[in-house]
Amino acid sequence: MSTVAEIEAAVRKLTPKELTRFRRWFAKFEAELWDKQFEDDAAAGRLDKLAKNALKKFREGRYTDL
Fold this sequence. Notes:
Elements: H1 4-12, H2 16-43, H3 48-59
């Protein structure tokens, strides 16, 4: 399978049980990619400005409890 169209066609042919298994796998796969991107961004300092701003607002009491 080398194209998105081929992958889509294959997914359409999955049984309900196989589709459930695929969904679980894909959710885990996507979460791992997101985690890696977040870690890379943090290590590169791309989140520093956001963190600094959040801490400033917290120290000023400008936050909302969740």
